[in-house]
């Protein structure tokens, strides 16, 4: 029973720093951008921000419903009760899927048509996603009514298509985040695509990933849009974010400034106080490509990123010894991270240990 909803959750589950808006297709870090010093696209207008807020609220209700249904379907005892048509369990399941059942109607009624043409493609894709999710809802309810698990295959197919289209729609929003940016390496005050960081992120993700370093002013404008669209899951405390299975990662000015100091300025401070911002920047650069690979969970992405800090540092050219110092310092503070970023399995021999044959961790 977990198959149907679980596919959707794998595709769209995300938390504060994981949600991003990747390009519709993977591309090289230098493709499709303007000449250095130029940029194109405008930030969201007040009318667009209002619409993005409505869309974000609709999307949140949809995701919360899918997650509640997923918890029922992924629990063997509850799944058995569901297929056995236990009244309370069926009612809880149907209540969870109410937002899915009304997906398109709520999108048109609660959100409405987009106020500008540039938002229309994403809106149309959300409508197409609703078509598949509503079919998924019908198929899974029919499977339960008939006590026929074979019908879940149909539900799973529509769940896959619905999840794929939700991600596709999300990749085009909000408008400011998908602006074209110049490619500029090294120290720069302007928003840009950082080619060296992009190459490293691409190796970590196993595909082309564009790392975007935003200026201080543009980062505030970007957060204004993201806060409206994500209902504050992305806010002032966010260091970076990337789309699940996407091709773009956005990093805060603080992270990019630290990386520039480390990589281009050859900063090698010895005090823990001065090293920690550099360690945080390094792990953030390693963290976001994990989401681009398709890893939705923050704890999983963070654990992998910590283990990859040394190799990431080597790829950036900072040297294995100093990268190891930064990794050791960051790992020493692991217990202070937010609960959603920690896991008991992030330990030697644990499920998240990338090198179980190695005697050292991380």
Briefly summarize what is shown.
With 362 residues, the chain is mostly helical. It has helices at residues 2-12, 46-73, 76-83, 87-96, 98-101, 103-111, 120-146, 152-170, 195-205, 216-230, 253-263, 272-292, 298-307, 309-316, 320-332; strands at residues 192-193, 210-213, 240-242, 248-251.
Protein described:
This protein is mainly alpha-helical and 362 residues long. Helices cover 57% and strands 4% of the residues. It has 15 helices and 4 strands. α7 (120-146) runs antiparallel to α8 (152-170), α9 (195-205) crosses α12 and α14 runs antiparallel to α15. Mean pLDDT is 86; it is low at 1-39.
Q: How much strand?
A: under 5%
The global form is globular
Helix content class:
55-70%
Largest sheet: 4 strands, mixed
- Quick check: average pLDDT? 86
Which value, in Å, is the CA radius of gyration? 22 Å
> How many alpha or pi helices?
15
Distance between the termini: 36 Å
**Strand pairing plus helix content: what structural class?**
mainly alpha
Within the largest sheet, what's the order of strands? 1-2-4-3
Query: Would you identify the regions where 5 or more consecutive residues have pLDDT less than 50?
Result: 1-39
């Amino acid at each position: 029973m977990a198959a149907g909803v679980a596919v959707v959750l794998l595709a769209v589950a995300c938390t504060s720093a994981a949600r991003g808006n990747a390009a519709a297709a993977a591309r090289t870090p230098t493709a499709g951008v303007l000449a250095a010093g130029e940029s194109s696209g405008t930030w969201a207008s007040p009318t667009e921000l209002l619409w993005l807020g409505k869309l974000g609220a609709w999307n949140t209700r949809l995701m919360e419903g899918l997650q509640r249904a997923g918890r029922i379907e992924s629990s063997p005892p509850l799944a058995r009760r569901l297929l056995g048509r236990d009244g309370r369990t069926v009612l809880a399941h149907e209540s969870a899927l109410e937002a899915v059942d009304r997906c398109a109607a709520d999108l048109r009624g609660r959100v409405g048509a987009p106020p500008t043409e540039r938002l229309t493609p994403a809106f149309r894709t959300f409508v197409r996603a609703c078509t598949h999710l509503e079919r998924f809802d019908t198929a899974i309810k029919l499977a339960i009514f008939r006590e026929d698990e074979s019908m879940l295959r149909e539900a799973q197919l529509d769940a896959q298509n619905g999840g794929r289209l939700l991600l596709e729609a999300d990749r085009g929003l909000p408008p400011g985040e998908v602006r074209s940016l110049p490619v500029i390496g090294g120290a720069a005050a302007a928003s840009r695509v950082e080619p060296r960081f992009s190459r490293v992120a691409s190796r970590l993700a196993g595909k082309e990933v564009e790392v975007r370093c935003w200026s201080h002013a543009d980062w505030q404008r970007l957060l204004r849009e993201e806060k409206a669209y994500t209902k504050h899951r992305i806010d002032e405390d966010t260091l970076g974010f990337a789309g699940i299975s996407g091709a773009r990662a956005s990093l805060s000015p603080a992270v990019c400034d630290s990386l520039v100091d480390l990589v281009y300025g050859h900063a090698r401070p010895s005090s823990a106080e001065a090293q920690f911002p550099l360690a945080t920047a390094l792990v953030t650069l390693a963290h976001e490509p994990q989401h681009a690979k398709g890893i939705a969970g923050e704890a999983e992405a963070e654990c992998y990123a910590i283990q990859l800090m040394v190799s990431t540092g080597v790829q950036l050219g900072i040297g294995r010894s100093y990268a190891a110092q930064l990794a050791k310092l960051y790992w020493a503070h692991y217990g202070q991270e937010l609960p959603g970023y920690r896991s008991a399995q992030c330990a030697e021999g644990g499920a998240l240990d990338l090198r179980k044959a190695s005697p050292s961790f991380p």
